[in-house]
Design goal:
Elements: H1 2-7, E1 11-16, E2 22-28, H2 31-44, E3 53-56, H3 62-71, E4 75-78, H4 84-93, E5 96-102, E6 105-110
Parallel strand pairs: 3-4, 4-5
Antiparallel strand pairs: 1-2, 1-3, 5-6
Helix pairs in contact: 2-3, 3-4
Length: 117
């Protein structure tokens, strides 16, 4: 987001569908709040999360992985790192967890079969 690039003082979260269309975008000082807002916007519109990707600016923690798993989002990606707790939850929930997304580079921590080469 523009605000994130300028200040690095907010977190951003976005949800995209399988056609790469942006379904929801939210910013907040807390990464959890940004994710909750984006998920809430989609839920209020009745979106089906099963073919979605959650992209965020914050760390991939257990709580973030749990939020995605609970609503059925199969892929979570961030510009930053995943914590061990996030990786463990992602494994148990069969989430594809991706960190350090920079252009074409990414580190796929779990369930890489969802990502095409």
């Amino acid at each position: 987001s523009e605000t994130y690039r300028k200040t690095h003082g907010v977190h951003a979260a976005a949800i995209y569908n399988g056609d790469e269309a942006l379904l929801a975008f939210a910013e907040d000082a807390g990464r959890h709040n940004a994710v909750d807002k984006a998920i809430g916007k989609c839920a209020l519109k009745g979106e089906n999360f099963s073919q979605c990707l959650l992209a965020l600016s914050g760390r991939l923690t257990a709580d973030i992985a749990l939020k995605a798993a609970r609503v059925g989002i199969p892929i979570v990606a961030s510009m930053t790192a995943a914590l061990n707790s996030g990786i463990e939850i992602a494994r148990k929930a069969n989430l594809t967890l991706i960190g350090f997304v920079r252009g074409a580079y990414m580190k796929i921590y779990t369930a890489p079969e969802r990502i095409l080469p």
